Amino acid sequence: MTLKALLILSITIGLxxxxxxxSTKGASRATGWKINDKNGGFQHNSKFTKQETxxxxxxxxxxxxxxxxxxxxxxxDWNNTPSQQHIQSFYMDETEVTNLMYTEYLFxxxxxxxxxxxxxxxxxxxxxxxxxxxxxxxxxxxxMTNNYLRHPAYAEYPVVGVNWIQAVExxxxxxxxxxxxxxxKNGYLKKDSKVKLGSEVTAxxxxxxxxxxxxPTKTYGGNEDIVLKREMNGGRKEVADTAKxxxxxxxxxxxxxxxxxxxEAEWEYxxxxxxxxxxxxxxxxxxxxxxxxxxxxxxxxxxxxxQLANFKQGRGDYGGVAGWSDDGxxxxxxxxxxxxxxxxxxxxxxxxxxxxxxxxxxxxxDEANDxxxxxxxxxxxxxxxxxxxxxVVTAENVKYDTLSNGKILARNFxxxxxxxxxDDNETYLRQNFSTSDNRDYRDGDKPSTRFFxxxxxxxxxxxxxxxxxxxxxxxxxxxxxxxxxxxxxQSDKRTTLVNNEVRxxxxxxxxxxxxxxxxxxxxxxxxxxxxxxxxxxNAMSKVGPKSNKKTPRGNPKx
Length: 558
Hints:
The protein has eight helices and 17 strands. It is α+β, with helices and mostly antiparallel strands. The protein has a four-stranded mixed sheet with strand order 15-14-7-16. Strands 1-4-17 form a three-stranded antiparallel sheet, with no helix packed on it. Strands 2-3 form a two-stranded antiparallel ribbon. The chain is globular and about 75 Å long.
């Protein structure tokens, strides 16, 4: 062997040994300590690959789009001025939440929190949809009033009669049930304990995702026979040495983010599905509807002339002529009855309009933010008790809200962690937010009003002035009789219905004309009221990369 060859060989061996010594397999790049050491130490799920697609959902790759651009503006309400927005990737329900999905929720509530018990009677009754929304003074709709929610013929129809608050509470419940199932499948919870309602799962012994993350030993009322420990990287064998085993946490990668209502920007982006019009880094035109084309009827040979959504086609025309090509429905229709859009989402036009998370304002303030736009942030934190430990809700301190229409709703359940608004500890010297409640920011707070004097030192000035003079109805419970005292605002000085208790709803419904099928159209409705034409679907944020597979052209593969 030549001298030159020996020199190259020695250098190669030296570099190899240096590489091995400086990056031992499974060791921390920060400290050199072994990660997931069976003798203890830092635990991390090094086998995590990507977020699991949640039950019932499809992935939506994020991107930039023009929000609020409608092709027609027959209403002339100036509430959807176009603005450029960017949306992060997320997941969305393939269909609207159905009667079957919602009655599963009601069954769980009724079983775990029996309405026959005084402490829990308003938990179940407060979650029941308002079936009387079907009634009309000059119409016979008792069939839907009595049957629509529970009859199996309507099981796969979208649920209606649900107000915005009920939709939010359903989303919280769904988060807990999905994560409960996920942890059981991975050996962190005792098998089948979740279905033993009334025995292992009771009002005092339930699963809450937030409680599990903050204090696992308080889950299921502290029943350690149900809440188990496992090895971080998927070990199945339970051992007594707690140093080798841990509870599942965020760094386990198993617990999914919360189910929630989509923001208005997310909903509009998903409904438009402009990905079908994309070429490289541009969109080739806008869509008037969630599907391509300028018409509501299909041009395909086999379905030519069929409506692509169910909606009101004219005065007294909710379903067309019997036996002819029409939308196949007079009220709502079974989900998936019409083609999906380019994201794989069904009924983003027609069937029912849908609640979104946002508080309504006439304008979208893109100057303040153009990334994941959302108006409605009320920042909360876990309540810490005097013992320094998170405070878990019990039967005695369940929080109930009496809505403006007298309906009583539970806003938390036993087993969940009590929540309180963030305070100065979180807001002091911050630039990005200064209060817990940000619903009024730049459009409704005191500096936004035309009465505000920026140079005034008078603290009492303008306290009674509001930007949006909406009615102030009040309702209270008489402490002596227990009866509701309702006071209707009869002032003639109210100029609008806009306030922090009205929410945006999107999409046309079976009751709407074609104009409202445009994804950019927007309307609002009081959050504590329900109708026979507004339903909802859930969304979930995606953690990790924007897309799991880079596709330079064509439709993205998530």
